[in-house]
Amino acid sequence: MTYTQKFHLIAPHGGTLINRVLTGDAHAEKSDYAATLEKIYLSEINLADLEMISNGALSPLNGYMGSADYQSVVRDMRLANGLPWSIPVTLAVSTEQADRIKIGQEVALVERREDGDHILAILEVSDKYTYDRETEAREVYKTTESAHPGVARLYKQGDVLLGGDIWLLEYPQRVTREFADLRYTPTQTRSIFTERNWRRVVGFQTRNPIHRAHEYIQKTALEIVDGLLLHPLVGETKSDDISAAVRVESYEAIVSAYYPASRVLLAAFPAAMRYAGPREAIFHAIARKNYGCSHFIVGRDHAGVGKYYGSYDAHYIFDQFEPEEIGITPLFFEHTFFCRKCGSVVSAKTCPHESSDHVVLSGTQVREMLSRGEDLPVEFTRPEVSQILMRGVQQRVVEQ
Length: 400
Known about the structure:
The chain is α/β, with parallel strands linked by helices. It is built from 16 helices and 14 strands. The chain has helices at about 5, 25-35, 45-55, 65-75, 95-100, 135-140, 150-155, 175, 185-195, 210-220, 245-260, 280-290, 315, 325, 365-370, 385-400; strands spanning about 40, 65, 90-95, 105-115, 115-130, 160-170, 200-205, 225-230, 265, 295-300, 330, 335-340, 345, 360. The strands form three sheets. Strands 1, 2, 3, 4, 5 and 6 form a six-stranded mixed beta sheet that branches. It has a five-stranded parallel beta sheet with strand order 9-8-7-10-11, with helices on both faces. A three-stranded antiparallel beta sheet has the order 13-12-14, covered by helices on one side. A hairpin with a 4-residue loop joins strand 12 (about 335-340) and strand 13. The longest helix has 17 residues, at about 385-400. The radius of gyration is 21 Å and the shape is globular.
């Protein structure tokens, strides 16, 4: 039974869940043909975007953005047709390669692997255009500084952008090698929500290991909905972020011990981090809408890095859209922490005590304690998570 027969989950962004995966005779025909095409080698962020375009997580996108959509998104946070969209999803190539490619031509999108090149998809090139990196950096990332990881990546990519629809022949290698049992597509999560009779589902995004403040926020949100999609990001992040494997392991440990199994789904979110702060909060919310979530948790400094964004800019940006335009309902949470006098996790809204009574650790403090073999305070995170993080940090030290 499909979700439309039983009850209606939230509609995908734009109304239709996109599927760009070729199967059957069409797949066999295009596979041989793709081998004859000009090859474009994909970066880590291209691979993540390709997976999410193909499986519908970036609906209504059918491929990489053409100039009209790109310019509109950078300038106005909308696709050319007016639909809200906050982050450019583009494919950059060198000027030399762009000169070999004509509008209307098809090209092969390729992943480099240890066993050789693998053609993953065909791009039907419908647009080819130059762009202003500084304008994109300033509008999307709110800075032109190359110290910002998203801006640095933008500055290093090719000078020409190719737009057009894609057809997937083969998923990137990571789909079968990394978190394969957690890598649910939007079609699959929607089916699971329907089977569990979850009409209202809240999504939680993180690139960090879980701690008590996260647990508090998630369980508070779970009180008002039917189910919780725990959706840790497993795509490319900064080199000093805790690895995806360690983060996912920490979630598996905490969910099995402290969450009701019938109310929670742990799944891997394939996206790469862009560190675009408020704009990425919108992007993450829209993606979770496509996965079937009706609500989305937005905490302090969502998708932030350094001091580039205000603590609650990711809350305020939602005011730039009518609620029905975004569709998914954001749940805004303050910074939360354990208060020794309250004896629980609280926020500035609910705690009257001085900061000296609060247990708050910075990322640097956490890494330093773990590298020294010190358990993190139980007020900060569960002991199970502390042990997993310690092994992960110490293993990284050994590898370096």
